[in-house]
Structures are given as C-alpha cells and as structure tokens.
Amino acid sequence: MSPKSKLRAPPPPAETLDTRSSSSSDDGEELVMAVRHPEGEESDAEEEDGLLRSEIDEREERQTWVLEHSVGPHRRNGRITIRGFSLPKPLLYVLCLLPTLIILNLIFSHSISSSPRHPTLSNGTHAYHPTTLLISLDGFRPSYFSSHADLLPNLHALASHPAGLRAESMQPVFPSLTFPNHWALMTGLYPEEHGIIANDFWDPDFQGGKGGQFVYTDESKSWDGEWWKGEPVWSVVEKMGRKAAVSMWPGPPVTSEGVSASYFNLAPSPKVDQILQWLDLPLSHRPEFIASYFPEIDQAGHAHGPDSEQVEDALGSLDGMVGDLVRGLEGRNLTGVVDVVIVSDHGMTRTSNDRLVFLDDILGEGMKDIEHKDVGIRFNPSLPPSTLSAHITTLQNAAAQSNGTFGVYTRQNNIFPDMQAIFFTRGPLARALRESRVGLVEGGESGVPVLQSFKNLEIFSLCTKLLGLRDVEPGHNGTEGFWERWLGLDVSTSIEDRE
C-alpha cells in the first residue's frame, strides 16, 4: 500500500488521538502533526509516522512544502518559511503591502479615468488645460456681417481662417430679449424653465408666494439666485473643482445652490485685457471657462436705431476688440489651446415712434392704478370692478381711434431674420467642424463654408463638451448628440489634435 493510500484509509472504530512531532533538516522549531491510529497498534502508527516524515523530507528537497494535513507555514526566530523559502518577517510584510498598494492605485486610477476628461496641454512654455472663451456681442444681427463688412475686417479674417468658422445665423429663444437669451445660452434652457422670462417681470410665486418684481437694471431686484433657475456652465465648472470667470454676463453672482464663479467682474472695460490677464495666471489659478458680455451695439441700437452711425461706431470698436483678442492669443501661442466662441443674444429691427402708444396720454390719472408699470399693464387687483372696466374701455376706445383693432403681437419674433443672432468660433473646434463638413453649407460669394443655422440652446452643451464635462452636465433643452453629429467625432478627442 502506498503512503498516500495508507494515510487516507478510514480509521478503525476505536481510536485515540496521538500527537507526534516532526522537524525539517534546516529548522529548529518543531511542527506538530496530528496523526490518528487505533488503540494497541503502535507498530502501524510508527509506520505511518515514518512514511509521513519521508514524504515531507522528499518534498522539502524539491522546495515544495505540501502536507496532507496542512497546518500552515513554518515559523522560527522572526522568520517565516513558505513553500520551502525562509523570509524575514519585515520583508514579508513589505511584499504583502505591495499588492495592496497596487490594488489601491488601480482603484484610484479607475476613478480618474471615469471622471470628466481634463487633459493638460502646452503652449510651448507653460501648461494649460483646454479653455473656452464665450463672448456675447449684444444686439449683433447676422446681416451686419455683410452690410458692414468694411467695418469688420477682424471678424471676416476669423471666419475665413482654417481654424475659424461662422454660422449663417443662430436662433434666439422667445422672447428675443437680453436677459432671457443670455441665461438660455448659459444653461441650455428655455425661459419657462430657467425662470428669466423677460428683462422686467412680476412673479407672484417668488419667495414662497410673497411675490417679487425682477428689474434687470436693479441689482437688489435681480441678483437673488432664486430668480435664476437651471445651472450655468460656470457652476458646472466650479463644481468639478476647476475655475471659471464671468465678466458682466447677465446672471447672479451666486446661484441658488450657493455656487459662485472664482472670478466675477462687473467693470465695463477693458475686457480684453482682463481676459488675457486671466489666461496669464498660474495653472492652478487660471480659469478654464471665461464668459464676457459686450453691450455696446445693443445700447446704440436702442438709443439711435439699428442702422445708425452710433451702431456703426460700436461695430467697428467691437471688431477691433476681436482683433486684439486674437492677436493676444497668437502672441501667447494659445490658438491651439483656447476655443473662442462669439455669439449674440438677438438681433434688432427698425421701429417707429409714430406707432408707439403712450399710456399716460390715454389713462391720465388712471396710471396710478397700474402696478409695476415697467413690466407691462397690470391693474391693481383690489380695484373696484367699475374702475377696472372704465380703464379697459378707455384703452379700447384709444385703439378704435387708430384703425379699429389692437396691435398684433406675435410670440414668434425670434424667427424674424433681423432678430437672429450670430455665431463665430476660432480654435480647435472650428478646425474639427471644417474637417467634418457635416453641418457646412456654401458661404455665398466668398466661397468660405459656413455652418447651418441652429438654436442658441445648443451653446450650453458645446461648452460642456469642449471642457470635457458632458458626463456631469445637468439636464437641458438642447438637442441630444447635436455636436457629435456635426463633428462626426468627439470634440474632446479633437482637442488633443491642436494647431
């Protein structure tokens, strides 16, 4: 009978448990073995013990320690022997620690790889993260690009550059007003979702039903974060531990969630110098998203008309700003690192004072019965019905004296050609869009391709994509996969293929 078969044979019914000891040739500490044998059969027990000793010695010679009745590794004098190898305890502890560190490193690496992409680039002398500049030229309508081409040499150069591009137009949300559209650009939400439905309005549900009046020119009546629903791009950036900068962009300094941009500037000028100063900051302090607002065209258009000399002056001045910005980026070798996105909130069209109705001329003393005059006609609900009826009759009679009807107001003023907005871009995004050619059309006489028109709600997801934050962006009203289809690839991939 072989040693193994003899060791594994079932024991007789009556048995006792005897303990024997064995030690290896190179070990002074005994290894206690439990060997079962029947009572009164000492010779068989001794034979089993001898066979077991022989097998252990044979396997030690092969440096393979395998026991049929294993009781663990052998220890002696601060050393541990495993499978025939004797190791100091400190060394064994180090060897055990290494796999633990490797596992932790793999876990940590996985968490990094599954987080939004955050590559580090270089302009040749300094490290940079991909950066997006979002610039708004309030009131700039697309037709100015051709009708005032002589005043816009820098924008024309940008649009025709191999890493530059413009769109035919960009459709604003309704109503085509400054504050609703700037917050739509920043959140990707319609006004009914983001809460800013006009430049001035009354909300009876504000602050739990107390009611409140939003007045865009009054900080005390417009900066409360409760007005501003949705999450702006700069809040998404800040939540990820990165930095954002806001320069006069319509919106609150702090969101309803308590998030603020690292840099918040209300100084009217000089904005280009401020942008370049932010880009010159050390990497750990440098904003990766910068939003800057320029109101000059809109101000001139409202005061003097969209075709006035004052608007022409504003166009020329802002085109010079674009030139200064591009030259500043080129001088810093940042044209392959920074994506410049230039938009407007809406366009402008002509009107006539002859068609204006002045309520105070019609209502006279009745004006005192109107609440919140600057947000539209809202008669005080506490008025007696007879007084309210008299005011309405007066307004109806005034309309009848002109043409017998009230004026017609459309809720689609955001589709009129003059009310469209602009879109220009310079940087890796533009180069990728040009190479894709999916959304491009012929650019008329110039032959320079342009992007098809699209809604301004797509700007939000464009910014989050350029910044590598699509995986953490909040819900929005933009089109799912819009930029992926137009690019035919991942924008974040194209970022690495810099100019």
From TrEMBL:
- The question of whether Nucleotide-binding is a record keyword is answered with no
The answer, when asked if Protein biosynthesis is one of the entry's keywords, is: no
Give GO terms: molecular function aspect only: nucleoside triphosphate diphosphatase activity; ribonucleoside triphosphate phosphatase activity
Against InterPro entries, the record matches this protein to: Alkaline_phosphatase_core_sf, Phosphodiest/P_Trfase
What sections of the protein cross the membrane? 91-108
Q: Which UniProt keywords apply?
A: Membrane, Transmembrane, Transmembrane helix
Q: Which SUPFAM superfamilies match?
A: Alkaline phosphatase-like
Using the UniProt annotation, give all residue ranges assigned to the region (Disordered): 1-57
Task: Please name the GO terms of the biological process aspect recorded for this protein, alphabetically.
Answer: nucleoside triphosphate metabolic process
Q: Which Pfam families match?
A: Phosphodiest
Cross-referenced PANTHER family: BIS(5'-ADENOSYL)-TRIPHOSPHATASE, ECTONUCLEOTIDE PYROPHOSPHATASE/PHOSPHODIESTERASE
Q: What is this protein called?
A: Type I phosphodiesterase/nucleotide pyrophosphatase
Organism for this UniProt entry = Cryptococcus wingfieldii CBS 7118
